User: Fold these one by one.
Assistant:
Number 1:
Amino acid sequence: MREPNESFAWKERFQLDPDVAFLNHGSFGACPKPVFAEYQRIQRELELQPVRFLGREFRDRMAAARTALAEYVGADADDLVYVPNTTTGLNMAAQSIALRPGDEVLATDHEYGALDRMWRFLCQKAGAHYVRAPISVPILSAEHVVEEVWSHITDRTRVLFISHITSPTALILPIQPLIERARDAGITTVVDGAHAPGQISLNLDELGADIYSGNCHKWMLAPKGSGFLHVRRGIQCMIDPLVVSWGWESDEPSGSQFVDYHEWQGTRDISAFLAVPTAIDFMQNNDWTSVRSRCHTLLSEFVPQWLEATGEDALASLSPKWLAQMATIAIPTSRWEAFKAALYDGYGVEAPTIWWNDRTLLRISVNAYNDRADLERLTAALHELIPQFREEASA
Ligand SMILES: Cc1ncc(COP(=O)(O)O)c(C=O)c1O
């Protein structure tokens, strides 16, 4: 991917344990040193004069951070608010949707487990139904995926919930045509964008989802505890504050009720939000489009080797249409937890295994700090572990 000295330079700019082949950017991200330094500088500034920082300056500081993020994700700054993470953003939105008995929320079988639970919880409370459309792998085509999802729409479907990039299978889903169809059918679209910002280009206004929540602390390289909730202007009035505070019936309304309702949630450390513009600058100053594409190329070069070691089929083509900086491969064992432990304990490879649709999956993330040696370590581990685990699985 890069000259050896260049990859060394990249590793030096992150804070990760040099003994670990860290192939799990996807779970919690990793923050580069200059972005983390700015985050800590902001925290010290807050403590220097908390009243000035969280009182007099709060609004302007948050507005500036929102403006930078909005520009990056192709949105208006008054249409998004910072949240600590995607789980919170999606809860804020979903809990405001007044589901009725018999309503259906349609999702796919590639959703993140915590959000499956959120919808099951909300549907149980309302007497509604949570329906998961299977998307079969290997993926055939975008049209096929759209049809697989859409075939589960009924006249009771109120919400279409879908991941932009899926957690277990690391696939970029063709959400745009589904959003358009749902809008025509009067169905509310809720997109889980946890993995998208920073990994693929985003233009939320063009995408047109009703509700979109994403993380800055994963692929945008921001400090942990930074994400956003974006809501299409026409439906912002239906989103209740999850935490009711000064912004409801505000004495000093800003131009946006949406921002008033959701931005101030009581005293909290907003430094991670305020460091997001620095993370954006970091990506832009380092030509992140090229970094991403180099990571994708490296991943695409190694996936066939890993498939050869496992003897399994790819979940999708290696085109950037389906994969960005993460790829998932199937592992021929049911012992998914033991396999993950063996990878880490025996080889120092950090990568998650997931038990999904009765099979073990292994998700590999590649970011700027990864070099060929990290991926070669995984290749060697797979060649040694797969025969052991395959034998044990069939024993
Ligand atoms: C698809 C997807 N959605 C949501 C989340 C939750 O992210 P967070 O814990 O930051 O809320 C994850 C976490 O990995 C995810 O993969």
Note: The chain has two domains: 4-30+287-394, 37-282.
Number 2:
Amino acid sequence: MAIAKEKLIWMFRTMTRIRRFEERVAREFADGNIPGSVHLYIGEEAVATGAIAHLKKEDYIMSTHRGHGHLIAKGGETDKMMAELFAKKTGYCLGKGGSMHIANLDIGMLGAAGIVGSGIPIATGAGLSAVMRGTDQVTIAFFGDGASNIGRFHEGINLASVWCLPVVFICENNLYAVSVPTSCSLNIPNVADRAVSYGIPGVVVDGMDVTAVYEAAGEAVARARNGQGPTLIEAKTYRFRGHFEGDSGAYRTKEEIEQWMTKDPVNLYKAKLLEMKVLTKKQTEDIDKEALAEMDSAVKFALESPFPEPEEALENVYS
Ligand SMILES: Cc1ncc(C[n+]2csc(CCOP(=O)(O)OP(=O)(O)O)c2C)c(N)n1
Ligand SMILES: [Mg+2]
């Protein structure tokens, strides 16, 4: 599949922005500016980027506790994201959601979710909604390898298949659910192999290679948009940092992490773009500098924003 130059550059810019956002979040969290906990997407940038590259603004995504990258790729503004993480009133959810609960329907972000696997049937519901309203909207559900062992995975994908809904299910298999390796939680080599039991395509893709993800997701999104129903994609990837910031990481070896870091998706893609002469070294450096400056201004915006007032605590809350 030939990818338009503009799209190739968008993907590099997006991955770079995700990486720089997450690095900055790590620093701000360590400095005590972010309450609660944060789960960073560093190492997995190619998955959100290559998949969301196919979506239109009105399409939907459903995210996870590790959701910053999905939101940035879907058009999230990093100042409002940073403010939300800082629990400030100018954040996407008025500072009441935090890292794990950002939603913004204007850009099709149905939400992130702290309850593992809970987003999968929500994505199925969004697919049903698109069909009932007669739109051509596609929904992508992101979830982890751990979530693929939760009952909602079966319920959500089975129903989407039976009703032929326009949903793409993307498992980000980073080999661990907190400290549990997939070797202890799965008795099959690939999560994607489960697709056969739903009668839908199951595709394994190298999640460190953004163009590979782009190709696999392109077919799946086209199928969904053409009324051919869901696809299960499994992207093999790795998180370079702990499960959450502050994780001791005692369950992984330094060698394993170093080995995966040789496949850094941002570096690999940069090398590819230089080789293809899509960008010059100077242009990649400029994109990186812009991303760093963007995160400086996002942090400034968050720091200078007010906290919500105590009397606003019950506003915009529903149950
Ligand atoms: C239903 C449920 N069970 C357990 C937890 C605690 N928990 C939070 S993240 C996580 C692991 C999720 O692993 P995975 O789905 O592979 O996502 P990853 O963190 O690797 O991106 C667990 C068990 C939870 N939040 N929700
Ligand atoms: Mg995982």
Note: The chain is about 40% helix and 10% strand.
